[in-house]
Each structure stands twice: as structure tokens, then as C-alpha cells.
Design a protein that fits this description.
231 residues, alpha+beta, three-stranded antiparallel beta sheet, 4 helices, 39% helix, elongated
Length: 231
């Protein structure tokens, strides 16, 4: 009975190269899967934290009012300090200071003050501070904008004059997000997964596919892909 002998050296080498390439492809696919799972896990956690902190903003506003009235004293002051410390550990940051350059993504203009000779738009009085968590904008700061009469003529509440309930614009600073203006709320930076739930919280009956209600500045319904190396 004839038995097949071992493959020639050249064929064996070719098989080894092929199997090695298969293993490398398998390892690359597993590494990509692991990174994707980790990225999605972090994204879910981040969104959960954002939602919890967003619900606490009225509490922080009440604390700010009490602080302005000099009522944050004694035991209440100790509670406030512990609360603010824990929120800071979760990544909550406030912003909005007089003199900051006006940015319609981060600031919502609720008034204006003409300053002769001003060479740029800046935040004057801060009516209500803004808050963010990482790249997530929880709420824009409400400010009175100061600048020249010519520059102020281009500024509208929320940084945009619109009759739409929702406006969606590109955001070049971070490829994952889009700028979203929600009527009565202001600008926010949202990812694909956050967009519809956030819009429906503001307008429960909205038809997100209706261009009369949701206006896209460029490509309707399109969201950018993740960039390699993003967390």
C-alpha cells in the first residue's frame, strides 16, 4: 500500500506562511473586537453618567441661588461641598466666565451689550453657568454678549436664528459628534446613539425624519465613523 510522504520543503514552507498569516488575521480581528467592546462599554458608562448629571443641574442651580443669597452656611455648606466634590470626581465641569470669547456651541446669547471699539465678541454677564462632562455638553452657559454693533448684529439667541425645533450641524473639533441645537435648550454635542433619545426628551412627539422639524446643515441622517485610536 502506498503512503503519501511528507510534502516537499517548498510546499511545507508555503503552508507555514499561510497558517501564520491566518493566525495574524485572527489575532487582529480579536484585538479589534476587544477594543470595540471596550469602547462601547466606556461609551455606555459615559452616557449613563451624562444622563444622571444632567438631571442634577436644577439642584446645582438651586445651590448657586442659595450661595448668592449667602444661605450656604453651616451643615448645608458641608453637604454642598461633599456633593460638588463627588460631581467633580465624575468629571462634571462648569464653565462660563466674564471675558471668555463667545462661542455659540458653548454659550447661549440671552442678551447683548454694545461696546464701541470691541474687536471680538466676548461673554459679559453670565446669567447661568454651563456644564460639561468630557466632550459632552450638558448645557450651554447663558450669557450677555459684549461686542461691536456690527458683530452683535450676527448673533441670535443660541447662536443661530431658526424656526426649526432641532438643527444639526457638523462639528470639526471631534469627529464622533455633531452640533445639535434644540429649541429652547441651546447647543449640545451629541453622538449618534444620544441624538434621538435626547431630542425626544425635549419633543416627545417629534418626527426626526421631518425636515420641517429637524434641519440638517449638510447630509441628513449621516453620522461620522469612529476614527482609529479613539477611546
Amino acid at each position: 500500500m502506498n503512503r503519501a510522504g511528507p510534502p516537499p520543503g517548498g510546499e511545507l514552507r508555503a503552508r507555514l506562511v499561510e497558517r501564520t498569516a491566518d493566525l495574524k488575521r485572527l489575532k487582529a480581528e480579536y484585538d479589534n473586537y476587544r477594543k470595540r467592546v471596550q469602547r462601547d462599554r466606556l461609551a455606555v458608562r459615559e452616557i449613563a453618567v451624562v444622563n444622571v448629571l444632567h438631571g442634577l443641574l436644577p439642584v446645582l442651580d438651586a445651590i448657586d441661588r442659595a450661595r448668592d443669597l449667602g444661605e450656604v452656611t453651616g451643615g448645608f455648606r458641608a453637604v454642598v461641598e461633599v456633593l460638588e466634590a463627588h460631581l467633580a470626581e465624575l468629571g462634571l465641569r462648569s464653565f462660563g466666565e466674564p471675558g471668555e470669547p463667545f462661542d455659540p456651541v458653548r454659550h447661549e446669547a440671552v442678551g447683548s451689550w454694545c461696546a464701541a471699539g470691541a474687536d471680538r465678541l466676548v461673554c459679559g454677564t453670565v446669567v447661568r453657568p454651563g456644564y460639561r462632562v468630557g466632550a459632552h455638553l450638558l448645557r450651554p452657559a447663558e450669557v450677555v454678549v459684549t461686542g461691536s454693533a456690527r458683530a452683535l448684529a450676527r448673533v441670535h439667541p443660541g447662536g443661530m436664528e431658526t424656526t426649526h425645533k432641532v438643527d444639526v450641524a457638523p462639528l470639526g473639533a471631534d469627529h464622533r459628534y455633531r452640533r445639535v441645537h434644540i429649541q429652547g435648550v441651546g447647543w449640545e454635542e451629541l453622538e449618534r446613539e444620544e441624538f434621538e433619545p435626547r431630542v425626544r426628551r425635549a419633543f416627545p412627539e417629534i418626527d426626526v425624519s421631518d425636515p420641517e422639524q429637524v434641519h440638517w446643515a449638510d447630509h441628513p441622517g449621516e453620522w461620522p465613523d469612529w476614527r482609529p485610536g479613539e477611546a
